[in-house]
Amino acid sequence: MSSRLIIKSHSLRQRRAKLTLLLLVLGLAGWGVFLLGQQAAGLDNGSLRAERDRLLAQLDEAESSNRRLSSRVAVLERTEQIDRQAYGEVERSLKQVQDEMLELKEEVAFYRGIVSPAETASGLSVTRFSLFGMGEAGVYRFKLVLTQLRTNNRLVKGHARIAIDGVLHGKQTQLSLKEVSGGTLDRLKLRFKYFQNIEGDIVLPEGFLPSRVIIEVMPVGKGWQRFKKSFDWSDIIA
Question: Is residue 223 part of a domain?
Answer without folding.
Answer: yes
